[in-house]
Design a protein that fits this description.
With about 290 residues, the protein is mostly helical. It has 15 helices and no strands. The protein has two domains: about 50 residues, no CATH class; about 210 residues, MetI-like (MetI-like fold, Orthogonal Bundle), CATH 1.10.3720.10. It is about 70% helix and about 0% strand. Belongs to the binding-protein-dependent transport system permease family.
Length: about 290
């Protein structure tokens, strides 16, 4: 091999290498934008956590890193106010609503997606149109209905009205439309009725979307404030968000206590999201939403 050929062979990869590289400008811009958005989103949470371990005198000093740490705020929250009872009420309410709503929503979505009956599409349009109505619009009519049924100031008032949510039915219906019909037909050939098809075929295939919806439903009802405030009066039925709001009226504007209670209330939500974040992403990818 001549020296010119060897030189060409050695320099060819180096000449071809830069042409294969992707431009760094757009990627660097996207990375910088993502970092900036993450910082904006995380900063309030970090400030809340650090302020929850400050004293009342330094809670509004504007410093992110506290100079004098104290855990008395958390001790006050659990000893001086019935915060554990508030957490229990929120957990029971959110858990029962999540389980019951997923059962009814999955059955309704299965009927609207896989069964054929007169008026099916019209029923779905009516259910879907309720997403256009905001909760404050129906707050007073819902209160009148619950009062007429004698459910005010009870767990039934906290659980029954939030059970019905068109978003869950819509998302499950979109997911069920993507399930191959051959699976359902094979089960019917084997002698399964509609109920067994739903229970033994559809539900096992719905685990990703049900996991995602369980997170959505639980977080929405854990953070509920307006309806529990209207539907309950007794201290024994106070939920976490209503109890935290009462700090400013019943226990004075002690922001160190409010922020400590908020940190405790945020922990279950963060844990739930971290556990089910993969299922949430997979459900959105497979449900037909873009």
């Amino acid at each position: 091999m001549s020296s010119d050929t060897a030189t060409l062979v050695r320099t060819a990869p180096a000449a071809a290498g830069p042409s294969r590289r992707r431009p760094l400008g757009p990627r660097a811009g996207l990375v910088a934008l993502a970092i900036a958005l993450a910082a904006v989103s995380i900063f309030p949470v970090l400030w809340m956590i650090t302020a929850s371990v400050k004293t009342r005198a330094t809670v509004t000093d504007g410093k992110l890193i506290p100079t004098d740490l104290t855990w008395d705020n958390f001790a006050y929250v659990f000893t001086e106010v019935p915060f554990a009872r508030w957490l229990f009420n929120s957990f029971i309410t959110a858990a029962v609503i999540t389980v019951v709503a997923l059962l009814f929503h999955s059955m309704a979505a299965y009927a609207l997606a896989r069964l054929k009956f007169p008026g099916r599409d019209g029923i779905f349009v009516v259910i879907f149109s309720t997403l256009l109505i905001t909760a404050p619009v129906i707050l007073i009519p819902l209160f009148i209905v619950v009062r007429t049924l004698g459910m005010l100031d009870s767990y039934a008032a906290l659980i029954v009205p939030p059970l019905f949510n068109a978003f869950g039915i819509f998302l499950l219906r979109q997911f069920y439309l993507g399930i191959p019909k051959e699976l359902e037909e094979a089960a019917i050939v084997d002698g399964c009725g509609y109920w067994r098809v739903y229970w033994n075929v559809i539900l096992p295939l719905s685990r990703p979307i049900l996991s995602a919806l369980s997170v959505f439903f639980f977080l929405a009802n854990w953070n509920a404030f307006a309806w529990p405030l209207v539907a309950t009066n007794s201290e024994a039925l106070t939920v976490t968000q209503v109890g935290i709001a009462s700090f400013s009226t019943q226990y004075g504007a002690n922001w160190n206590y409010v922020l400590a209670a908020a940190v405790v209330a945020v922990v279950p939500m963060l844990a739930l999201f971290l556990v089910f974040q993969r299922q949430m992403v997979e459900s959105i990818k497979t449900s037909g939403l873009k």
